[in-house]
Amino acid sequence: MLKRIKRNWYVPKGQEPTDFDKRILSYQNRGELVPTRKLIKTPEQIEGIKRSCEVNTGVLDLVEKEIHAGMSTEDIDKLVYDYTVAHGAIPAPLNYEGFPKSVCTSINEVVCHGIPSEFEVLEEGDIINVDVSTILDGYYSDASRMFIIGKTSPEKEKLVRVTKECLEIGAEAAKPWGFVGDIGKAIEKHAKKNGFSVVKDLCGHGVGLEFHEDPEVDHYNTHHNGMLLVPGMVFTIEPMINMGDWHVFIDEEDGWTVVTEDELPSAQWEHTFLMTEHGLEVLTY
Ligand code: MF3
Ligand code: CO
């Protein structure tokens, strides 16, 4: 059977291929998955995405300053909404595919996509992921951090630390003219070495002109190259690392909240990155 590969890159009829075109086509002709032209951002688009990221980082800095035991996740949602709107931006999660709030707040065994609620109050020892995404002038940014409420157990502390290391190690593994698959391979190795597992059902993603673009960025070893990484691509890396088993399920009642099957804690850190000639640049610091 003739296996058809996705031919994402083409040179418009009547146009001479540039050296850049030729370089991408050489990978495509070897059967590798390459980006579409739209995934390679123009300098103007990159400026817009960077401005969006600045607001997004401002939101996370504010949450970091204000978060404390006794606060509800609804209080966090209000902080996020007010700051974002005051800076002329829109919280990307709000009404996204029916998501009812401005931010995702995921405590302990909640992996991601937790919905803020006035009835959910932060307690001493909780670990919480706050996942913030912003639209400014049509440009999207996306980042999340973990916060430890007061003092927690050494195991949960280690999970939060190792998950941050997974993000950093994954980012270092991503090289221009390398492959998306290098990222997950490096992350899984570090997670396993520390006795933890990597969630497989959710991935990082291209971002910038839309909330979720190609490529899919898996955080585990898929044993596939995945998409070619080319300077100008913007995407997230956002590993979700579990203390126990990697299996998760979605809460049937709200249709969003992702929870570990074994109810052991999970952590996640996320940045939006720009691929440059020299490697990844973090846009959400
Ligand atoms: N911020 C999440 C991500 O990293 C997406 C959340 S979608 C939402 O991709 F609707 F739950 F907000
Ligand atoms: Co994301």
At a glance:
With 285 residues, this protein is an alpha+beta fold. It has 5 helices and 15 strands. Strands 1, 2, 4 and 5 form a 4-stranded antiparallel beta sheet that branches. Strands 3-12-11 form a 3-stranded antiparallel beta sheet, with no helix packed on it. Strands 6-10-13 form a 3-stranded antiparallel beta sheet, with helices on one face.
Plain-language structure description:
The chain has 285 residues and is an alpha+beta fold. It has a single domain, classed as Creatine Amidinohydrolase (Alpha-Beta Complex). Helix content is 29%, strand content 23%. The chain is built from 5 helices and 15 strands. The strands form 5 sheets. Strands 1, 2, 4 and 5 form a 4-stranded antiparallel β-sheet that branches. A hairpin with a 2-residue loop joins strand 14 and strand 15. Helix 2 crosses helix 3 (73-86) and helix 4 packs antiparallel against helix 5 (181-193). The protein is globular and about 65 Å long. The chain binds 2-amino-4-trifluoromethylsulfanyl-butyric acid and cobalt (II) ion (CO). The site of cobalt (II) ion has 5 residues, from loops.
Report Rg.
19 Å
Task: Indicate the proportion of strand residues.
Answer: 15-25%
Q: Which descriptor suits the 3D outline?
A: globular
CATH architecture verdict = Alpha-Beta Complex
Number of domains: 1
Approximate helicity band: 25-40%
CATH topology category name = Creatine Amidinohydrolase
Instruction: Output the CATH class name.
Output: Alpha Beta
Helix-strand sequence? HHHEEEEEHHEEEEEEEEEE
The count of DSSP E runs of length 2 or more, i.e. the number of strands, is 15
Query: Which sheet architecture does the biggest sheet show?
Result: 4 strands, antiparallel
Which ligands accompany this protein? 2-amino-4-trifluoromethylsulfanyl-butyric acid, cobalt (II) ion
